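Suppose you are handed a protein chain with no further information: no name, no annotation, nothing but its sequence. What can you learn? This example shows the usual starting point.
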Amino acid sequence: MRLPKIVTTLQDYSLRLFLADLAAGVTVAMVALPLSLAIAIASGADPGKGLVTAIVGGFFISLLGGSRVQIGGPTGAFIVVVFSVIAEHGYDGLVLATFMAGMMLLLAGVFRIGGLIRYVPEPVVNGFTIGIAVIIASSQIKDFFGLQLTKVPADFLDKLEALWGARGSASFAASAVALSTLLLIVALRRLAPRFPGLILAVGAASAAVVVLSLPVETIASRFGALPNTLPVPSLPEISVDRIVELFPSAVVIAFLAGVESLLSAMVADRIIEGKHRPNAEMLAQGTANLASSLFGGLPATGAIARTATNIRAGGKTPVAGLIHAVTIFLVMLVAAPLAGYLALPAMAALLVLTAWAMSEPHKWKHYLAEPLADRLLLLITLVLTVLVDLTVAIGVGVAIGLALRLREHGKPPEDWSMPER
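A reasonable first move is to predict its three-dimensional structure. Written in structure tokens, the prediction is:
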């Protein structure tokens, strides 16, 4: 079934449901706002692009999606591939790759192949997710400690060498802001899990920077003023050569968007005891990425952390996701200059915690208890993601995983014995 969930949920919609969705939508917007800015910065893009993606992508994911409570926007899973595409092909190349990925996801929904993503071996998903988390965390070391580096190398090992070489330039003020933000976020999550502690922690740390005149970089000091409205939509520049050149990147973006959104929808199903529509979700992801690219935004997908926040805050229907997008748009209209004061070390702390959550440390013990083949597959995918390339990691991981699965299907059961005739 490919009908959006909003079609069925609005049939018996009520004022009580709207008030619950309103409170949840505003709450999750306060969580999504600093995250969207931080993800765009870590991706090598202008921070305003994160807001555009949260507004446009988030709106269409909720409007057309197959989950009652899914919240969409830019996510940490895309940071590695987006950074790589921008570095190699420029930002216009990323926009075209996102546009192409949107078309691929639309086709996946039309031909009802959204459910096939669940057959990707779980160790592969876990491996590249942990690998992405490692890369995200390492990319934030510079801003977390205020290191003086003109350019951080893209290669992981070269990056670590450059960061270690710059250790003498660490700023006490930047480190204090980052650590304070990190500790405050953790404390608020434990003491008031329903409260949007991310915006409060980042805002409080940034306010301290302004009041105390600390020598710490902010969004405005590095990137200039944030936009206070959405850009005029336009088609990316398309040519055959450019399509061929960007095709592998588009495939990876489409794959990540599909995997992340369906994982998020399945997590939400377990919490609310519901059932999402995978093909409707693919159509929504395709539309959201097409729309985001037309507005010059980043790739968008369902966000597990923001979806969980929506559920905890009482979100009941896709209307909460629409309200989340509209709230961010209103903040952009009236408070963009204030967001420019957000301190970069505070944003770095936010992304370090995001990376930690992405790696799902509570599952590490479970991974170690898995069969040897699964552990090796996870490790191979993780190492290739960090040291080589995400595209290679996914390709090699899926190929090895499918080969192992075929080998297992060809084996007789352990208690098999020759039947008596």
